[in-house]
Amino acid sequence: MMRPSPDISVVHLCLEPVDFRKGINGLAALVEAELELNPFDEALFVFRNRSLDKVKILYWERNGFCLWQSMSSEGWYVRRESVLQG
User: Fold this and answer.
1) Cβ distance 35 to 14 under 8 Å?
2) Do 39 and 67 contact (CB within 8 A), yes or no?
3) CB atoms inside a 10 Å sphere around CB 86
4) Helix (H) or strand (E) holding 39
5) Phi, psi (degrees; rounded to nearest 5) at 20
6) How many CB atoms are located within 10 Å of the residue 67 CB?
7) pLDDT over threshold 60, residue 83
């Protein structure tokens, strides 16, 4: 089973919606260009779509990128306002 390393202790959450047509290369480029982070770091990079019902997680695993996608059957994931308000 593919899992992130237990050594990963950092999660970067992109609060702005992302075009979910982007795959591994597009999201890795977004991490570098817009988030100004290194996509090869031991970290999870979490992205959401505009309607808040999908999430993608990108991370580097030893010799390649891994990309997970989840879709909520219940509707929304956490709204941005509730994240910012704590």
Assistant:
1) yes
2) no
3) 4
4) none
5) -80, 5
6) 15
7) no
What one-letter code names the amino acid at 62? R
State the amino acid at position 74 in one-letter form. E
**Alpha-carbon distance 67 to 76, whole Å?**
20
pLDDT tens, position by position, 12-39: 999 899 999 999 999 999 999 999 999 9
* pLDDT tens-place string over residues 40-49: 999 999 999 9
User: d(Cα 53, Cα 4) in Å, to the nearest integer?
Assistant: 22
Which pairing describes strands 10-13 and 64-71: parallel, antiparallel, or unpaired?
unpaired
In whole angstroms, what is the distance from residue 17 CA to residue 26 CA?
Answer: 14
Contact call for residues 50 and 17 (beta carbons, < 8 A): yes
Q: Which residues pair with 10 in a beta bridge?
A: 43
In three-state secondary structure terms, 71 is strand
Residue type, 64: G
Q: Specify the amino acid at residue 19.
A: D
